[in-house]
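Sample 3 of the quickstart, ligand cGAMP:
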Amino acid sequence: DYGSGMAHSFFHGYLKLIIPHTGTSEKHLEELMKDYEDRHHVKLEFYKLFILIPKSLYCSTSLKTDKSPSIEESSSLEEKVMTVAGVQNRVYKNSVYKIKSESENGRKQYKYVAAEYATPLKTFKDVVGCNGAHSSYYAKHKNDIVLQFYLTLQKVLKEHENCTDFCELIFYDDKDENGDIKDVGQILLQRIRKLQ
Amino acid sequence: DYGSGMAHSFFHGYLKLIIPHTGTSEKHLEELMKDYEDRHHVKLEFYKLFILIPKSLYCSTSLKTDKSPSIEESSSLEEKVMTVAGVQNRVYKNSVYKIKSESENGRKQYKYVAAEYATPLKTFKDVVGCNGAHSSYYAKHKNDIVLQFYLTLQKVLKEHENCTDFCELIFYDDKDENGDIKDVGQILLQRIRKLQ
Ligand SMILES: Nc1nc(=O)c2ncn([C@@H]3O[C@@H]4COP(=O)(O)O[C@H]5[C@@H](O)[C@H](n6cnc7c(N)ncnc76)O[C@@H]5COP(=O)(O)O[C@@H]3[C@@H]4O)c2[nH]1
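Result:
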């Protein structure tokens, strides 16, 4: 099953490499987040990596787009460097975004989160777009594949205690009733409010 | 089919991103290789990325291991940087190795190549190793999956003229009759001799 294959490879080929104490610095993702707070004098809402799983498979280049006016790019966490399968000093880095939100007394404030799309979904959408032979099969089964990806990733994370608390999956309907892309900032704020 | 899915994702999620004129520098992989030659005063055997596809799926951390005494790590090509699916300034870099080879007059010389394992195979082997439910299925079909990966990647590369000349796939039997891992340096030298 393609969706669960992507989920296993995303966990074993990426999340399992970047969350625990790995890389030349031997730091846990949580430590990189605390270092970020010290260096930039800001507070991250949670010591978690928010992984966006949009049902339509559409992943923009950056989270900041004209459809998401509430989000701005901040800088990245410190890089993790490790040699993997012949690639010397391969670099892994995670991005921080700041989201404008109204506080109770109406003053503007920013909420900082580490967030990104689930990369295999972007790649999968590219594959489907270019690939004559399989396109019709994938287009028909797209919804099942994304759902399987989400459910399997959720299950695999639960089996790994050292990773599950540091990763927040957001599986969401990314298009509104007119077919427009929703503001990703609002999607993240909703989840933040729920977690608090 | 899992093998061809991995091949499509490796091409669309990586090779198509790193070979053409991409990244903040807008350089082609061939230009990065020529820059490397100027900077380090060495000559690369070919302006190609050698991708190793070992039949056993075993991919060591670096190409340099005690089983491959003829290979040494050199430095990396210049990095390519691009924002992908929410990860700002994601870094892609390729490694150069130098291989000891005997010249005609018996003098020692080095041959420089950009080479790495096909990372999805390493990830796939990790997934199979950890995963109770599917392991027996994968272990049985491992040979078909690697073969499908190779054949599909070969086909997809042929369909993209701007990439196929800059990528050399080496599908090889990586264990000798005693079950020991062969010297990867010799595998690469054999292919270099064939291409000349
Ligand atoms: N956000 C994010 N940042 C990363 O650094 C990263 N690295 C991997 N992944 C995702 O994890 C999974 C497992 O990766 P694997 O390395 O086996 O396959 C990778 C790998 O074979 C190759 N590849 C991608 N980036 C690199 C790279 N920098 N160096 C070498 N190979 C790479 O192309 C495949 C597809 O990559 P993505 O489609 O970006 O998603 C991958 C994949 O879903 C990443 N996701």
